[in-house]
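Dear colleagues,

As part of the handover before I leave the project, I'm documenting each prediction I ran so the next person doesn't have to rerun anything. This entry is a single chain, and its sequence is reproduced below.
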Amino acid sequence: MKAVVLGCALLLCLSTPVQAYHGEAALDVARSAGSDFAAQRAAIARDLADGETYAELSAAARAEVVASLDAMQALLGQSGSVDAMPPQLRVELFNAQEKVNTLLTQAAEDSRRVCTRERRVGSNFVVSSCQTVAERRRQQEAGADALRQGSLTPASVLGD
């Protein structure tokens, strides 16, 4: 029992610098009471619905986030607060919180738009090109795969 509580405390201490580096976590039940959790949950739902903040979040990941939020709501409903929870339920709550934060943080990073200004070949016109980080990664991976498979060769690109 002491090991579980100590493990939770250690997890919280180790995750704090990571959250400080990435900015504020999307969800933090340790600092919230029941009403604060409801407000945080509403903010997450609003961000999921806007179509921009977590645009790169897949349907399966969205369902996982909603299921984790539902589980957290049920756990908080049983005890009323994090402090009143038995250690096992507290561990379940924090595991669900970490799952939500991990999914939302990754999706927010992947949904960030990056714009570049490039000159068209044979022209002096500068063209802006904007893509999300995930789109750029997919495009880069597709190009690397095409080169590996031999379907894209320098001769085919140059038109020789």
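The chain has six helices and two strands. The chain has two domains: 2-110, 113-158.

All the best with the project,
I.
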